[in-house]
Amino acid sequence: MRLRLPRRRGLKIRANGKKFFLSFSWARIRVSEIDALFRSGSDLDALRLLSNISESILKGLNSNQVEALIQAVDWEVPQESSGVNVGRLEWWKLEQAIEVIQKARRPLYALPRLYWLYHYETSPENASSEDLPKSVSKKRFGEIMRQGATVLASILEFLSNFEALNEGSGPSGEEIEAGIEGLQSFGTLSTLYSLSKGDVLKFEEVQNQPAETIYFVLLYEKSLNGYRERLHEIHKRNLNTENV
Question: How far apart are CA 78 and CA 55, in angstroms?
């Protein structure tokens, strides 16, 4: 398979004596097709959308060849001039958005669902698994993708202010031995339970709190717990010194 850069925004490909073309642009792809890539996570499906490469050749490509073609595609999406203040909006909406981003094989595939979460009055119960509504999938591609990209950038900027939450957060050997994986499987629900003090009647109240409020509380509690652990170690060390 030989590749050659043409004057047009795309890649000319010669394989098995035939010429094919891979577009660099997503402009002609429908929103529903992008969301299908979110569900499948298949790079081959992306190449099917962006090129006229025959199915027999696509199936014969090895992983390195697929990756080379995918890397040639333009994955950058222009953003709106003003961002989205995700910190002032509901915490649970942000957690859903994070789950969508983590599930998407490539960030671009998550953009329609991020748009859905932050530009519709009624939020989905589970944005990573529910069907994208037709009212979103039929909107103009450029509008959805630009605003979705703006949401993504805003979320990443917000999370960068709370990177300390992930520092040293891995379980200890004792916790692993005790079976902490079972608790970790509950994900964000365990945080919701903790912040609600186990009162299910307060779940919705906590979910609707501004994301910046919840993240501040989580960061403060982590700092406080770290301080208490260090203070306990100091007291124990001093006690051992006195007993010598």
Answer: 31
Nearest to 73 by CA among 100, 40, 107, 47: 47
Q: Report how far residue 159's alpha carbon sits from residue 151's, in angstroms, rounded to the nearest whole number.
A: 12
107-110 CB contacts, 8 Å cutoff, 24+ apart = 107/75, 107/152, 108/26, 108/34, 108/75, 108/77, 108/145, 109/34, 109/35, 109/37, 109/38, 109/41, 110/38, 110/148, 110/152
Residue 220 CB neighbours (<10 A): 10
Q: Of the candidates 61, 115, 71, which has an alpha carbon nearest to the alpha carbon of residue 93?
A: 115
pLDDT, averaged across the chain = 85
Q: pTM for the complete prediction? A: 0.83
The 18-23 sheet, strands edge to edge? 2-4, 10-15, 18-23
The arithmetic mean of pLDDT across residues 35-46, rounded, is 94
Who contacts 145 (Cβ-Cβ below 8 Å, separation ≥6)?
26, 31, 34, 77, 108, 111, 112
Whether the Cβ atoms of residue 75 and residue 43 lie closer than 8 Å to each other: no
| Cα 59 to Cα 110: distance, rounded to the nearest angstrom | 25
Q: Which of 85, 100, 80 is nearest to 34 (CA)?
A: 100
State mean pLDDT over 90-118.
95
Size of the chain in residues: 244
User: Is the per-residue pLDDT at 184 higher than 80?
Assistant: no
